[in-house]
């Protein structure tokens, strides 16, 4: 058990950014440009505390956990809210808080002069708080709450420049598509809760081990949870929102759509790994979807003009790798790739942001020759690109190669083929982007006049570049021959139960497989060089001749068109039907009542003739009726008489 | 007795019908005084000749004259057709009034009024006068009502003058209270 | 013959007077509802008042418990009815002056 002081410190990790959110939301208008200092001040504490938590986990060797009862349902159990930090969560805490700090530093320069500067920082901090809360969640409920909050912040940040209709649409698209995943996730949570009576991860895992959940039910629930992960991590078929999410500010893309939020899906699978491994079907689904997404997204990135979209598709592709890793049982490799990817992908986005900040354009074909004008951006981007392509000895190599090797060694040859193909495509498209942007001659005025970005932006880039190179060195496998241990793999490992269930034997380091993947990567870079530096006319010619294929890839395999024609049109049709019902039936009903009352009033108006004798007649008749009612013996006679008299009076009165 | 009763009944009811159905307003007024006389006869049969005298004096003497005055001031040419004097409510009115009359007859005739016999009321003027103005016990509060009626008469007098005064524009413009 | 004379000399029961009064009331009500001339309507109202008077006096004579109070009421009603005629005719005259008509079908400005 931790002391109260330690508990407070650990609880403060997600709470500090939350407090900063409230402060900035309330006082943003006063603070304006000073909002960044408030935010960074708070974030530094979160980072330090995250390192402290990591230190505690390393020192104690077991997870930190404490919780309080939030909703107590008595007999039905309850939902506690608290903290569960094991090795995986500790690493994620450090990654998330550190990258968030880098982004917040960078945003000070990028978003300078923005109209809603303080609000941007407020939502960014709310996002960080939610993501940290998601990481430390001990049960599905807290995870789901933070999951939804993260989605909300993504919506708010993508749509930060809501004056642009494209940004509004993109934010809505992101929210709606991830909502589909969230709904499936929620159904999965309910299924688990019904079957086991608890929503805590540990509880569900134990119940699953003990066999409380039937086989098909378990698979179904776990697949539903995975669908939630698909939505959040932009895997096939819910990948369509991520490229459009690039309408948001570039630091947002770096933080949310590269390093953290999209990693939440992978994190969810890792968190519930003990449950996943009990369903081989689910594992296969995860692996195949991951590999397919990796390949598909890489093909789509080949032909994009917008540099941010290239990087966005790259994110989708790399997340596919992580899912592939988890699916074939390479838990440590998958999480290792998540950890490395956070750094070099964030760096790639920051470089793109630096270019955009300098020349105000995303279009690769408007850039060119920036190598001489923005050298720092150039070199950091090259480093990030090499790490992404998995070139030895940078960080990306160690994790990506581990995944690919596991796929091969577990005899998933189809997945191996897809993965290797994707390595080639990845190297090609990222260096296509780099060569188009930085080599050759400037293609436009803007490119000719670009200058390097200010220090507040380049310092985080440099830090992340160093990490892109070195972060993988904590995970060098032993077979490589260096006197270092695989710290990461030893630290972030699946539980003993998972290991037994998977029956994965640890493989030694295979030089052959590593060499193959590095060579394939270099080949990709070489082809990019050939097509875009040595013979620049080759690419447009190919595009013209392979026009059908080019368009197919450019339109994202026509997924947007497909979804638009089916779901979107159906949804709009339903909406129109409901609107019609509301207008015609309900509106008509209400209007009809009003009109009917009016007409009744008009009809009754004719009784008011203004003539005293008419009124006197009505009075006499009424007295007569009352007298009969009071004095009569038989109710039927009374009723008949009253009806007769009333009808007669109305008939007469209408003609008066 | 019966003969007298039958005669008075016929006179009263025929006069009443004459009021309603006469085409000339003056004929209606005269029929009305005929009805008043019939009622006065009934009062005599009911052992209150005092009231019969009052009836003749006030109703036949004063009210008829006042009404004739009113008719004179609102002179209209005599009409030829029945339709002109009767409005469209003739049949609904007939049934309503007939219904009321039938109902009243039914109730009044079938209700048991207990041990009744003529001759229970005041016979002489002295008795009536004392009952109207006296304050002995056993008598009702007629003295108060008497005074209230006097006030009412005064008010009515003033009101009638005020309403029918021909002032410059104002009195004639009032469309009644 | 003796029976006929006896019959002719018989007392009129209370219900007789009441029935006559009721019929007179009904005729007066009918007239008040159907005549167009305001003064004639007035006259019909007087008929109704007289019917009520007759009823009151009949009860005063026949019912022992009332102590002859009905006659007193009748006197007061006569007085009040006379006052009402005066005021009512004043009103009719006032209307006649402005609208030049005593046809109460035409006094319908509160119509609708």
Automatic annotation (TrEMBL), chain A:
The organism's taxonomic lineage, starting at the top:
Bacteria, Bacillati, Actinomycetota, Rubrobacteria, Rubrobacterales
Key word ATP-binding present: no
Q: Which GO terms describe its cellular component?
A: endomembrane system; membrane
Q: List the Pfam families hit by this protein, alphabetically.
A: Proton_antipo_M (PF00361), Proton_antipo_N (PF00662)
Q: What is the protein name given in its UniProt record?
A: Proton-translocating NADH-quinone oxidoreductase, chain L
- The EC category is oxidoreductase
Keyword terms: Membrane, Oxidoreductase, Transmembrane, Transmembrane helix
Provide the species name: Rubrobacter xylanophilus (strain DSM 9941 / JCM 11954 / NBRC 16129 / PRD-1)
Keyword Transmembrane helix among record annotations? yes
The protein's location, in the record's own words, is:
Endomembrane system; Membrane
GO biological processes: ATP synthesis coupled electron transport; electron transport coupled proton transport
Write down the membrane topology.
Answer: Multi-pass membrane protein
- What positions does the domain NADH:quinone oxidoreductase/Mrp antiporter transmembrane occupy? 137-425
């Amino acid at each position: 058990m931790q002391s109260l002081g330690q508990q407070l410190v650990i609880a403060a990790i997600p709470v500090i950014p939350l407090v900063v959110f409230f402060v900035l939301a309330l006082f943003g208008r006063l603070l304006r440009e000073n909002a960044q200092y408030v935010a960074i001040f708070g974030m530094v504490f979160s980072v330090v505390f995250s390192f402290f938590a990591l230190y505690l986990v390393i020192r104690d060797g077991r997870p930190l956990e404490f919780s309080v009862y939030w909703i107590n349902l008595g007999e039905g159990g309850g939902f506690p809210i608290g903290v569960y930090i094991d090795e995986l969560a500790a690493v994620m805490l450090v990654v998330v808080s550190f990258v968030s700090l880098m982004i917040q530093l960078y945003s000070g320069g990028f978003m300078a002069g923005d109209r809603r500067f303080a609000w941007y920082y407020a939502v960014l901090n709310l996002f960080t708080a939610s993501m940290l809360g998601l990481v430390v969640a001990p049960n599905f409920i807290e995870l789901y709450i933070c999951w939804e909050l993260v989605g909300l912040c993504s919506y708010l940040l993508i749509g930060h420049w809501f004056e642009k209709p494209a940004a509004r649409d993109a934010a809505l698209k992101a929210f709606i598509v991830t909502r589909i995943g969230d709904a499936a996730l929620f159904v999965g949570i309910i299924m688990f809760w019904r079957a086991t009576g608890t929503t805590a991860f540990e509880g569900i895992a134990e119940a699953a081990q003990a066999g409380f959940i039937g086989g098909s039910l378990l698979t179904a629930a776990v697949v539903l949870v995975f669908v939630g992960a698909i939505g959040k991590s932009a895997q096939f078929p819910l990948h369509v929102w991520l490229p459009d999410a690039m309408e948001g500010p570039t630091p947002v893309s770096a933080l949310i759509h590269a390093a953290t939020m999209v990693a939440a899906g992978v994190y969810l699978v890792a968190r519930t790994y003990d449950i996943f491994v009990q369903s081989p079907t689910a594992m296969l689904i995860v692996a195949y979807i991951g590999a397919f997404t990796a390949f598909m997204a890489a093909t789509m990135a080949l032909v994009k003009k917008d540099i941010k979209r290239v990087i966005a598709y790259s994110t989708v592709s790399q997340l596919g790798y992580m899912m592939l890793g988890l699916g074939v049982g390479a838990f440590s490799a998958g999480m290792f790739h998540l950890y490395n990817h956070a750094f070099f992908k964030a760096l790639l986005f920051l470089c793109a942001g630096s270019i955009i900040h300098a020349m105000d354009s995303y279009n690769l074909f408007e850039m060119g020759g920036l190598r001489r004008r923005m050298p720092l951006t150039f070199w950091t981007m090259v480093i990030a690109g090499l790490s992404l392509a998995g070139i030895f000895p940078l960080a990306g190599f160690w994790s990506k190669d581990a995944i690919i090797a596991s796929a091969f060694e577990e005899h998933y040859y189809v997945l191996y083929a897809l993965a290797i193909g994707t390595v080639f495509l990845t190297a090609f498209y990222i260096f296509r982007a780099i060569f188009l942007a930085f080599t050759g001659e400037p293609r436009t005025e803007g490119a000719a006049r670009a200058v390097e970005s200010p220090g507040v932006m380049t310092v985080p880039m440099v830090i992340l570049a160093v990490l892109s190179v070195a972060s993988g060195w904590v995970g060098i496998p032993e077979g490589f021959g260096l006197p270092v241990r695989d710290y990461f793999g030893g630290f972030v490992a699946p539980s003993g139960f998972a290991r037994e269930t998977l029956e994965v034997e640890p493989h030694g380091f295979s030089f052959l497989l590593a060499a193959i993947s590095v060579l394939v990567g270099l080949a990709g870079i070489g082809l990019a060089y050939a097509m875009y530096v040595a013979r620049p006319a080759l690419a447009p010619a190919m595009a013209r001749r392979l026009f059908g294929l080019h368009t197919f890839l450019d339109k994202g395999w026509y997924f947007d068109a497909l979804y638009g024609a089916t779901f979107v049109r159906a949804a709009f049709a339903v909406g129109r039907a409901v609107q019609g019902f509301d207008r015609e039936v309900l509106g008509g009903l209400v209007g009809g009542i009003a009109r009917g009352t009016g007409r009744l009033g008009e009809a009754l108006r004719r009784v008011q003739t203004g003539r005293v004798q008419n009124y006197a007649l009505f009075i006499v008749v009424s007295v007569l009726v009352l007298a009969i009612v009071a004095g009569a013996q038989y109710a039927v006679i009374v009723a008949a008489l009253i009806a007769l008299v009333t009808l007669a009076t109305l008939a007469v009165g209408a003609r008066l | 007795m019966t003969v007298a009763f039958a005669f008075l009944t016929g006179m009263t009811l025929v006069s009443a019908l004459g009021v309603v159905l006469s085409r000339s307003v003056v004929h209606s007024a005269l029929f009305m005084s005929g009805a008043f006389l019939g009622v006065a006869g009934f009062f005599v049969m009911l052992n209150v000749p005092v009231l019969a005298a009052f009836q003749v004096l006030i109703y036949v003497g004063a009210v008829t004259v006042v009404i004739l005055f009113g008719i004179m001031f609102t002179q209209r040419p005599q009409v030829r057709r029945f339709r002109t004097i009767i409005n469209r409510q003739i049949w609904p009115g007939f049934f309503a009034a007939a219904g009321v009359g039938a109902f009243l007859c039914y109730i009044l005739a079938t209700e048991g009024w207990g041990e009744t016999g003529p001759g229970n009321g005041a016979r002489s003027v002295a008795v009536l006068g004392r009952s109207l103005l006296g304050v002995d016990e056993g008598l009702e509060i007629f003295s108060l009502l008497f005074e209230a009626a006097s006030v009412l008469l005064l008010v009515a007098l003033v009101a009638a003058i005020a309403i029918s005064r021909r002032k410059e524009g104002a009195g004639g413009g009032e469309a009644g209270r | 013959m003796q029976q006929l004379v006896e019959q002719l000399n018989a007392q009129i029961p209370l219900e007789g007077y009441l029935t006559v009064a009721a019929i007179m009331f009904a005729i007066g009500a009918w007239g008040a509802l159907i005549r167009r001339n305001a003064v004639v309507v007035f006259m019909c109202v007087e008929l109704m008042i007289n019917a009520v008077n007759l009823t009151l006096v009949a009860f005063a004579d026949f019912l022992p418990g009332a102590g002859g109070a009905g006659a007193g009421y009748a006197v007061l009603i006569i007085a009040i009815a006379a006052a009402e005629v005066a005021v009512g005719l004043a009103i009719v005259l006032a209307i006649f002056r402005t609208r030049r008509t005593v046809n109460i079908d035409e006094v319908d400005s509160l119509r609708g």
